[in-house]
Amino acid sequence: MLLGNSAQIEITPSLGTIINGEFNSRYANKIADPLFAKAIYLKNENTKILFIVVDICVMKRDFLDPIKTKIHELTGIPPTNQLISSTHTHSAGSVADLLLGHVDLAYRELLEKKLLTLASEVCNKENQLKIAFSKIEKPEHLTCRRYIMDSTYLPKNPVLKSIDVVKTNPFGAEDLIVKRTTTPDPEVCFFGLKTMDDRWIGLLANYGLHYVGDCDRGTVTADYFGYFSNKIKKLLNSENMIAIMTNGTSGEVNIWDFINGDRYPKENHQKSRLIGEDIAQSISEVINNLSWDTDPKIQVLYSEININKRSLPESILTESYNILSKTDYESLTYMDNDLMEKVYAREQVLLESVPNVIEFPIQCFKIGKAIISGLGGEFFSETGVKLKQDNPESFTICLANDYVGYVPPIHEFKNGGYETWRCRSSFLEEIAEEKVKTELFQLINSLKNGKD
User: Fold this and answer.
1) Beta strands 30-31 and 219-220: pairing type?
2) Is 322 found in the same domain as 229?
C-alpha cells in the first residue's frame, strides 16, 4: 500500500536580497511572483522517501547535508532517501557563491529553517495514494546554446588563453553561426499522485530546459517552473495539489535561440509564461490515459564516488595570481573588455582551496516501474538520453543533493566553450561524466534486477 503526502512553503526573499546566477551579484528590487519549496513524501512498507524541490539557483552539500541530517532526526527518513534539488531559476535568493554572485547569509539561514519546517509538515500526514508515470515530447522549447562558428570568428577561452571551437550564446555574432552542436532531450517525464478517491495530491515533472530568464536583473521570479505549476493546477481543477517542475539534463540547453530569435514574445516573463503553460497544457491532454499503480514497490540506492579536481598548468595559476593582485573586483562591469579574464583568474585562485578529490553523491529511486535519478550538477542532454536508452521509464533530476557545476561529456572539452571553462562551477576532471554515468548505470541495473 502506497502512503504519502505533499506540501509547500513560501520562500520568497525580501527586497534587497542578493541574487546570484550571473557573473556578478544582483539585488532584489521587485518580486514578480512568489517562490516556493515543494515536497512529496512517499512510503511503502518500511521504505520512506522524500523529494524537496526549491525555487533557487543552486544549493551545495555544505548547506544541504546538515539539513538532511536534521530532517532524518525529525522524520526518520535517512539522508540517502532524501532528494533535495534546485529548479535553477536564476532569479532567486542566493545560498552559494557563483562567480561574482555572492551568498546571502541571512537568506541562507532563513531557507534552512523553511526546509526543516516543510519536511516536518509533509511527513506529519499520510494519505493512501496511487501513482502513475508518463511522458510527452516538447522539443519546440529546447535550443542548444553551444554553436560551431565560422572560421573567421575566434572565441577566446579566458582560462587557457586559447581559441575555442564552440561559442556559447554568441551575442552579436549570429551571422557567423554554422550550426548547433547537440540535440536536446525532448521528453517531459512526470509522475502524478492521487488519493484513492481521485483527489490530486501532487505532480512532479522533469524537463531538460535550463531556465528562461526573461526578466530584469533585480527581479525575483520562479521562471517557467512557476508558470508551469500554476497552470497545471488550473487545468486539472486542483488548486490544492502540489505541482513541481524539476531541472533535467540541460547543461547546454536554453531557449535563447540565436538562429531563429523572433519566435517568442519579448516582454518580461512572457516567454516563461508561454513555455510553462504550454507544457502544462500538453500534460493535461494525456492525463486521462494514465495507468495508476496502488501498490508500487519503492527502492532506493545511493552511492558516492571519488572524482578528481581538473588540473591546471602552473603557469596559468601564476598568471591568475598576477591578474588578481591588480584587479579591483568591486568596480568590474559588463562593459569591461577583460571582464572574463579577471573573473576567471579569481576562480583559479579560489579553486586552490577546493580539495583535489571530492565525493560526488549519486542517487537512484525505483517507484513501481519508474526510475528517478538524482545528480548534483549540470549534465548535458547527451547524458540523460543515454540513461534513458535502456530505461525508457526513467528521468534524471539535476542540481540535486549538491552543486559541482557543469559536468560535460569528455569530448566537449576539445570544443571548449563556457561550460568547460575551469571555475568553481565547472571544475571536475574531464572523465567525470563517464565516471558518474557508469556508476549510475550500475545502480539502475541493480534496481532493475531487484537488488538492494
Assistant:
1) parallel
2) no
Whether residue 295 is found in the same domain as residue 315: no
- Longest distance between any two alpha carbons in the chain, whole Å: 67
Residue partners of 354: CB distance under 8 A and separation at least 6:
309, 424, 427
Same domain, 371 and 418: yes
Statement to judge: residues 297 and 314 lie in one domain:
no
Pairing of strands 394-398, 406-407: unpaired
Nearest to 386 by CA among 317, 335, 444: 444
What is the rounded distance in angstroms from the CA atom of residue 437 to the CA atom of residue 116? 31
Mean pLDDT of the 216-232 span: 97
In a domain, 158, yes or no: no
Gap between the Cα atoms of 32 and 220, Å rounded: 6
**Contacting residues for 248 by C-beta, under 8 A, at least 6 apart:** 185, 189, 206, 207, 208, 209, 381, 384, 395, 396, 397, 398
Place of cell 495530491: 201
Residue 248, helix vs strand vs coil: coil
Which string of DSSP letters, residue by residue, matches 326-361? Answer: T--GGG--TT-TTHHHHHHHHHHHHGGGS-SEEEEE
Residues 370 and 334 placed together within one structural domain of the fold: no
What mean pLDDT is predicted for residues 101-118?
97
Of the candidates 326, 353, 380, which is a domain's last residue? 353
Same-domain pairing of 316 and 421: no
Mean pLDDT of the chain: 96
Residues 102 and 189 in one domain: yes
Q: Domain range spanning residue 332?
A: 310-353
Do 218 and 349 sit in the same domain of this protein?
no
Sort residue 254 into left (φ over 0), alpha (ψ -120 to 50) or beta.
beta
Whether the predicted model's global pTM rises above the 0.85 cut: yes
Q: Which of 331, 353, 375 is at the close of a domain?
A: 353
For residues 85 and 375, the answer to whether their CB atoms sit within 8 Å is: no
- What pLDDT is recorded for position 451? 58
Which pairing describes strands 36-44 and 47-54: parallel, antiparallel, or unpaired? antiparallel
